[in-house]
Amino acid sequence: MAATDILTLRLDPATSKRLARLSKATDRTRSRLAADAIEKYLEEQAWQVDAITEGVRAADKGEVVSQRSVENWVKSWGTPRELKRPR
How far apart are CA 36 and CA 57, in angstroms? Predict the structure, then answer.
């Protein structure tokens, strides 16, 4: 078995009951469900942080699009003369 760390956390009673119900319904331990949820959360947060970091780097290099260009592009959506995404 792979090495694991133990984490203790506090849940409000309503959340704890929901977790217990899901555990029973899925035949998975509360610990496994919590670990899966934390892993998914970390993946989502890492994606967001990476995207923000990439955006800041691009802005630092001057690789930006004017707000006016973006507004015009969005206004064109669904029209016969829809504009290409500004770069």
Answer: 32
Residue 1 has pLDDT above 70, yes or no: no
Query: Residue 87: its pLDDT value, please?
Result: 87
- Amino acid identity of residue 34, one-letter, is A
Write down the domain spans for the chain. 45-87
Tell me which DSSP letter residue 79 carries. Answer: S
The DSSP secondary structure of 11-78, one letter per residue, reads --HHHHHHHHHHHHHHT--HHHHHHHHHHHHHHHHHHHHHHHHHHHHHHHTT----HHHHHHHHHHTT
Q: What is the value of pTM for the model shown?
A: 0.65
